[in-house]
């Protein structure tokens, strides 16, 4: 299985990409953004982690932590200033 990259998801905005990840983390029924098939947990039997998902149709693996890192690198927050005191 090949790990999917952020650019393959065709997400138009940071909010759309974050919503996709949140749906996966909440274990909601999510379709593959590449082919439209239903995603399923990668480690169903081992119960190692609910952060990795797979699409059996297009044989892509969705590693949410890697996708989150890509979102932060490629789609940085804009126009928001956080003041730390």
Helix/sheet category: alpha+beta
Task: Report on the biggest sheet.
Answer: 4 strands, mixed
Quickly count the domains. 1
Q: Helix and strand string, N-terminal first?
A: EHEEEH
**How many E-type strands?**
4
Which radius of gyration do the C-alpha atoms yield? 14 Å
Strand order of the largest sheet: 1-4-3-2
Low-confidence stretches: none
Helix content: 25-40%
| Structural shape | globular
Tell me the span between the first and last alpha carbons: 46 Å
Give the strand content.
5-15%
The number of helical segments is 2
Whole-number mean pLDDT:
84
Could you walk me through the main structural features you see in this protein, from its secondary elements to its overall organization?
The protein is an alpha+beta fold and 85 residues long. The protein has one domain. It is 27% helix and 14% strand. It has 2 helices and 4 strands; from the N terminus they run βαβββα. It has helices spanning 14-25, 64-74; strands spanning 2-3, 40-41, 52-55, 60-63. A 4-stranded mixed β-sheet has the order 1-4-3-2. α1 (14-25) packs antiparallel against α2 (64-74). The longest helix is centred in the first third of the chain and has 12 residues, at 14-25. The radius of gyration is 14 Å and the shape is globular. The N and C termini lie far apart (46 Å).
């Amino acid at each position: 299985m090949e790990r999917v990259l952020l650019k393959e998801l065709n997400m138009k905005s940071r909010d759309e990409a974050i919503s996709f990840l949140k749906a996966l983390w909440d274990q909601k029924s999510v379709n593959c953004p590449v082919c439209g098939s239903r995603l399923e947990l990668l480690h169903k039997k081992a119960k190692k982690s609910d952060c990795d998902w797979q699409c059996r149709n297009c044989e892509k693996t969705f590693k949410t932590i890697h996708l989150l890192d890509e979102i932060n690198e490629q789609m940085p927050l804009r126009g928001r200033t956080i003041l730390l005191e």
